[in-house]
């Protein structure tokens, strides 16, 4: 059985913990029953010993598999990872979603995407990465009475993402601790109105509105001040054709959207100015998690 799951960029500026989008940058895993437990890793994280000895995918998979079957079996796991770890591209959500989906799929049990999403919520309490990881596309997601309520919109081929990935990892848990405990009424209104405008811009494909609607005052400035070069990344992106440019999730990646015909120019400008960072143009993903038996 093979399963693939996309990277995701959460928040999109003002939509803290509720907006997210899927990227065509994927983790894949092939799982086969085997006489012994074994793991092979290629790509991102392959030189990280923790991913061989204490892998979050395997522990979530084993828990779900045991709960479903009451059996303990051995498997061979072959991981091919494209999503960088702890860079704000939803690596943990990708692991959670694909581990749960695999435990069901390997037993031939069908699980609806909405159910998979709600099972994933137990491992990541904010739904802005797990929803696009499951569904693909742009997503607005809220937790209402312990259930994720969401709306998905496909992204057309006329748009591309350009990501700038610094070599410094940022843990989401630690990064959330740097945020203020309380916000003023003005800042709260600013973010609610911008997040609503941004959602409407995606839904109506009013791409020229993204630049204004993607402004945020609740999290980016507090996180970016620990890596001030990111302010320069944002300025350079907006000067070179980005329709919007925001911190991806909790960072450290910076995420921009451009018309496809402008994305190469944007990628080159960012590569030239930030040669020490990884810069890539990536298509959007409109499928979400995919399983092949
Ligand atoms: N391919 C992987 N295999 C196993 N565990 C992984 C993998 N990718 C990420 N993880 C786990 O997820 C942790 C990173 O989660 P974290 O929430 O800090 O970052 P992120 O999900 O990449 O960022 P964000 O939520 O801001 O998009 C890693 O420390 C590791 O424990
Ligand atoms: N909304 C989350 C995304 C990262 O998982 C945050 O900004 O902390």
TrEMBL record:
Pathway: Amino-acid biosynthesis; L-threonine biosynthesis; L-threonine from L-aspartate: step 4/5. The keyword Ribosomal protein does not apply. InterPro entries: GHMP_kinase_C_dom, GHMP_kinase_C_sf, GHMP_kinase_N_dom, GHMP_knse_ATP-bd_CS, Homoserine_kinase, Ribosomal_Su5_D2-typ_SF, Ribsml_uS5_D2-typ_fold_subgr. The keyword Nucleotide-binding applies. Signal peptide: none annotated. ATP binds at residues 84-94. Catalyzes the ATP-dependent phosphorylation of L-homoserine to L-homoserine phosphate. HAMAP family: Homoser_kinase. Belongs to the GHMP kinase family. Homoserine kinase subfamily. This is Homoserine kinase. It comes from Aliarcobacter trophiarum LMG 25534. The gene is thrB.
């Amino acid at each position: 059985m093979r399963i693939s799951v996309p990277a995701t960029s959460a928040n999109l500026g003002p939509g803290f913990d509720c907006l997210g989008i899927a990227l065509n940058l994927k983790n894949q895993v092939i799982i086969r029953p085997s006489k012994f437990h074994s793991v092979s890793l290629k790509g991102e994280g392959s030189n990280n010993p923790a991913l061989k000895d204490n892998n979050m995918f395997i522990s979530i998979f084993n828990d779900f598999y045991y709960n479903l079957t009451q059996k303990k079996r051995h498997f061979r796991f072959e991981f091919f990872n494209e999503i960088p770890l702890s860079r704000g591209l939803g690596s943990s959500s990708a692991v959670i979603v694909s581990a749960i989906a695999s435990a069901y799929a390997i037993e031939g049990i069908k699980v609806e995407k909405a159910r998979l999403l709600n099972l994933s919520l137990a491992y990541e309490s904010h739904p802005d990465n797990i929803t696009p990881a499951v569904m693909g596309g742009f997503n607005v997601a809220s937790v209402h009475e312990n259930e994720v309520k969401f709306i998905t919109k496909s992204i057309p081929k006329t748009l591309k993402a350009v990501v700038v990935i610094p070599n410094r990892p940022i843990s989401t848990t630690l990064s959330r601790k740097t945020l203020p405990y309380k916000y003023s009424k003005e800042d709260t209104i600013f973010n609610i109105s911008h997040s609503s405008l941004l959602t409407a811009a995606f839904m109506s494909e009013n791409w020229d509105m993204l630049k204004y609607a993607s402004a945020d005052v609740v999290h980016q400035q507090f996180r970016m001040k620990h890596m001030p070069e990111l302010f320069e990344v944002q300025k350079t992106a907006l000067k070179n054709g980005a329709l919007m440019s925001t911190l991806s999730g909790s960072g450290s990646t910076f995420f921009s959207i451009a018309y496809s015909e402008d994305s190469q120019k944007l990628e080159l400008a960012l590569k030239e100015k930030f040669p020490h960072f990884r810069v890539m143009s990536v298509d959007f993903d409109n499928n979400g998690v995919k399983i092949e038996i």
